[in-house]
Amino acid sequence: MGSPSLILALLGLSSVSYYLGWRRSISLAQGTVRNLHSLPGYHGLYTALWAAVPALLLLGIGVALKGPIVTNIVVSDLPQEVQSLSPERLNLIVNDIRNLASGNIASQKTPAMLAAADRYIRLQGYAAIAITVAVLAMGVFCGAIAWRTIQPGKRARNSVERIILGFLMASSTIAILTTVGIVLSVLFESIRFFQAVPVTDFIFGLDWSPQTAIRADQVGASGAFGAIPLFAGTLLISFIAMVVAVPVGLMSAIYLAEYARPRVRGVVKPLLEVLAGIPTVVYGFFAALTVAPFIRGMGEQVGLDVASESALAAGLVMGIMIIPFVSSLSDDVINAVPQAMRDGAYALGATRSETIKQVVIPAALPGIVGGVLLAVSRAIGETMIVVMAAGLAANLTANPLSAVTTVTVQIVTLLTGDQEFDSPKTLAAFALGLVLFVVTLGLNVIALQVVRKYREQYE
Amino acid sequence: MAASGKSTIERVRATLARRNRAERRFKNFGRAAVLLGLLFLVLVFVNIILTGYSAFWQTFVKLPVHFDARVIDPRGGADPETLGSADYGALVKASVRSLFPDVSGRRHRRELGKLVSRGTVFQLRRMVLEDPSLVGSSTEVWVPVDDDYDMLHKGNVDRTLPETDRRLSDRQIAWFDRLADDGRVESRFNITFFTAGDSREPELAGIRGAAMGSFFTLAVTLLLSFPLGVATSVYLEEFAPRNRLTALIEVNINNLAAVPSIVFGLLGLAVFINLFGLPRSAPLVGGLVLTLMTLPTIIIAGRAALTSVPPSIREAALGVGASKLQMIVHHVLPLAMPGMLTGTIIGMARALGETAPLLMIGMVAFVVDVPQSVTDAATALPVQIFLWLDSPERAFVERASAAIMVLLAFLVAMNALAVVLRRRFERRW
């Protein structure tokens, strides 16, 4: 029985258990539910949970262990000369056996391997049967014991609630596990990368050409991992984006918060927020197909040489994407400035714009700065726009009309397509990911801190 | 003030005009910023609709086909195996040549052969297999034209360009015009676009495979992230003691919400694929990664919804003897549910548009088959858009923007649903 049908069977088993537990508690109650400590439903739930949860855990363990155990047995039955091969070669052979077993094409077919594949299939079958039997037995056994322990005075509700609370607690740790997972996965691979390439070469190197040589005699494959051009490119594009997004976003937030009539605001604000809901791949499409050729054409008109994948195009479109981000965050903080401060300024005879420039903005500044920092971290981590509209060549330049590449573009290029997992080329992507994670995390922490400080001021 | 010899009111009057101009200027800047933002929005939409709307039509040509028994059923007997493996390419070639009997020469004939889509061969094969009595008969069949001619018919090929800069020669264009004049060319609704998987031929490519991939991915995401998100927000809001650990979890969730999506992709690659050995390119892994990505959104929305339920409800429930969990499950959660669902839908909409993490876990493969389960190799809609944009054919660009329209339609529908939910069920206490 496969795992899905086994899970279905367990679900069936636990619904039967629910009914049995419910029945037993009612019959024990001798007609009045008041004789019971917990409602019959809780007794049913108690039995059902006991029937399902241990069995599910067992199933998880079984599925996790099945593969390695079967593989080990098959390998230990292989001829001696095969077993003494290097681990990589052995791995290849095991893969071939698996492919043969699942009816796929394998790179080699010897009688010994066919036999091993047969054996593999047979053992897989045995393992599946063993798991099915064990899991079902576990479910029936635990369910039966729980059913037996039902007594009128049994505190079934408390037990069920404890189990549910446990589930709630466990799910809230997932957020932490995710962070730990991110840190560990990028950290481990980065450490392996830094064993091959010194940290200083990576952080301070000026040359990025990750094409490592497959054979020693290949030309043009230096394998230089200096990330400065990537950082510079990322910063250039993010800077262009902020030049677009901050003035437009901030001014529209000011207009909507201070000048616009409620009806205009009610229409325009959601419309602007649509910009934030458009998938980034759509912006990439827009940048690559419309904005980049347009800028190139404009450049030709005035006699400038513009790369077809210029930083300007990617930055502009990224700026458009970030406008609503800046404007809604600024809008929040501008609205949080107490009306009394505005009234004070008006009472002194200030015009509206003077009030905004000299009272509201200075008061809201920390919040706005926090919002802009969040927007910068957004821009740095944005991937699809730059993958589609920025270049691949790592040029170290500050010219917005030339092609540059970014950290995220390089991560995507290094990791899409076929790769083996231990070349410095793929590991470099994780090192870049580590940098990206650390930088954006730092920006977020600072930004959230700034925003929180500011909020406390007015609460 | 007295020193300047003017009263305050005079000084104010002197600068008032300038200050009012500054006021107007400032206000106009603000208005301009808003208009600029709206202009960008309109530009993006108009641009996509203009490049993409024509992809919903496909040019067909009426082809006189003679199902020559000597070619497809040389031994007779209409044996399905013989019929299935026959040389339908020869039929197509003969049909196209019969339209232009005057064309001769190898090179010209080869150019002529590119008139109809390569899928025509399969279309004829399917027809014969469904109805073997066709063998030996002649009929007229509408078949899709090749993507270059499709672009020509839609006016996307500039006829004034020099011949070498076009994908079609002058001769090919003349042939096509002759067919059009004969009434043999027609634009029809492009059903293939909605029913087919990906293909190397634009006229045979569709979004069904990618849409199913997105569907499976989102199904996994929803099944995991909704229960986990609700559970987490209930725990943090209702049960968690205020201690270091909870503070850590909260900071963590806020930060995860701002981690670049591509980093989640790296996590998926390193943990789910390399460590757990889950299959590459599978919606299952995509769903897991997107779950981790959308969880913070759902948790934050869920907690906001829980805090908005007034304490009086809780106290009333506890007062009549409900346990804490009963109070939450029976009273607080139903009241908070609209807010939680809204947050979930918004999170799902974001997950639907997400591309970068899916690139990391290999959902960029060229997948022709429509995926049938969460472990089949698949792409997702946004990834399909990315892939098509990378292709050199003009027709793929058109299809990419049509796919964007479909994607945006889904997003609009999801967001509208969220707005409706909020309007209908949100209660102000």
State the main characteristics.
heterodimer, A: 459 residues, mainly alpha, MetI-like fold, 2 domains, two-stranded antiparallel sheet, 17 helices, 2 strands, flat, B: 429 residues, 3 domains, 3-stranded antiparallel β-sheet, 18 helices, 65% helix, extended
If you had to describe this structure to a student in words, what would you say it looks like?
- Chain A has 459 residues and is mostly helical.
- Chain A folds into two domains: 3-157, no CATH class; 222-458, MetI-like fold, CATH 1.10.3720.10.
- Helix content of chain A is 77%, strand content 2%.
- Chain A contains 17 helices and two strands.
- Chain A has a two-stranded antiparallel sheet.
- In chain A, helix 7 packs across helix 17 and helix 11 packs across helix 12.
- Chain A is flat and about 85 Å long.
- The mean pLDDT of chain A is 86.
- Chain B is mostly helical and 429 residues long.
- Helix content of chain B is 65%, strand content 5%.
- Chain B has a three-stranded antiparallel sheet.
- The model of chain B has no long low-confidence stretch (mean pLDDT 87).
- The chains are: A mainly alpha (459), B mainly alpha (429).
- At the A-B interface, helix 6, helix 7, helix 9, helix 10 and helix 11 of A face helix 1, helix 10, helix 11, helix 12 and helix 13 of B.
- Give the C-level CATH assignment of the largest domain in chain A: Mainly Alpha
Strand order of the largest sheet of chain A: 1-2
CATH C-level name of the largest domain in chain B: Mainly Alpha
Number of E strands of chain B: 3
User: What does the average pLDDT of chain B come to?
Assistant: 87
Give the SSE order of chain A as H and E letters: HHHHHHHHEEHHHHHHHHH
* Total number of beta strands of chain A: 2
In CATH terms, what is the fold-level topology of the largest domain in chain B? MetI-like fold
CATH superfamily of the largest domain in chain A: MetI-like
N-to-C series of helices and strands of chain B = HEHHHHHEHHEHHHHHHHHHH
Which architecture of the largest domain in chain B would the CATH scheme give at its second level? Orthogonal Bundle
Task: Kindly report the greatest chain-chain contact and the residue count on each side.
Answer: A-B, 89 and 85 residues
For this structure, the CATH topology of the largest domain in chain A is MetI-like fold
Say which CATH homologous superfamily of the largest domain in chain B is assigned: MetI-like
Mean pLDDT of chain A: 86
By DSSP (H or I, 4+ residues per run), the number of helices of chain B equals: 18
Structural Rg of chain A: 32 Å
